[in-house]
Amino acid sequence: MDKGITMGKIREVSPRFQARMAGVFAWIGTTEGFAIWVRSRLVVDGDAAATAHNILAHELLYRWGVVGDVISYVAFIIYTLLLYDLFRPVGRRLALLAAVSNVVGVAVELSISVLLLAALAVLKGAHSLSAVNVAQSQALMFLNFYDDGYVISMVLAGLWNILTGYLIFRSTFLPRILGVLLSISGFYYQIHNFALFLSPAIAARVEPYVFLIGMAELLLAGWLVVMGVNEQRWKEQAGEAGGIRM
């Protein structure tokens, strides 16, 4: 057997397998949900003393929350790059814009995770009573900064949802309904994100449904894992676009 042909076959990855791997990494990224749950249990809005007590009393759980964040960010970067490769035949520039927006958003989330560790550091570094009071205020400030940074990152994540939903809708190898639902979730995210900055009252009304709307992302991930993509249609669309895998 010709060695060059053999190596070419090894390097070639099935679109369906790649889609399923993307779905696997999307599910790994749900560790962010665990991290959000941890902070919801430990952080008490507006109460620095209670928040400090909870964090120090459950330090290991708090640290596991940070680990859950980091795992999800790495998984989402890989997920984004895999989807970019899949959607290049649909629209190279649009797929690139979607990928860049999500990777930048994840980079923002990854960088602001330092604020979570900073909050823990100042709490553990306080010894005197006066220092404890100052540390509690500083810790809550760091956590508030983290929340603000997270909202900014979600603006980019919402953009990714909208663009990726449009790419799915234009594709021939995934159900269009998945694209419609993903784009709707992206627009809903944006409403919630900007409401948090401009109108907290509206944000409070929108927030209860954010998780429900976000199920579109899990639906896409589930489809990718179980069904992958229609390989024949992907190859046809790639051929029409002149798409060649790098």
Topology of this structure?
Layout: H1 3-11, H2 15-28, H3 31-42, H4 48-57, H5 59-87, H6 92-125, H7 129-170, H8 176-198, H9 200-206, H10 210-213, H11 215-226, H12 231-241
Which descriptors would you attach to this protein?
single chain, 246 residues, mainly alpha, 12 helices, disordered N terminus
Structure in words:
It is a single chain. This protein has 246 residues and is mainly alpha-helical. It has one domain (14-237). It is built from 12 helices and no strands. Helix 2 packs across helix 11 and helix 5 packs antiparallel against helix 6. The longest helix is centred in the middle third of the chain and has 42 residues, at 129-170. The two termini are 24 Å apart.
Brief sketch in words of this structure:
With 246 residues, this protein is mainly alpha-helical.
Structural category = mainly alpha
Radius of gyration: 21 Å
Beta-strand percent range: under 5%
Q: How many helical elements?
A: 12
Largest sheet: none
Mean pLDDT: 89
Helix/strand order, N-terminal first: HHHHHHHHHHHH
Shape descriptor? elongated
Distance between the termini: 24 Å
Number-wise, the strands total 0
Total domains: 1
Helix content range: over 70%
Contiguous uncertain segments of 5+ residues: 3-11
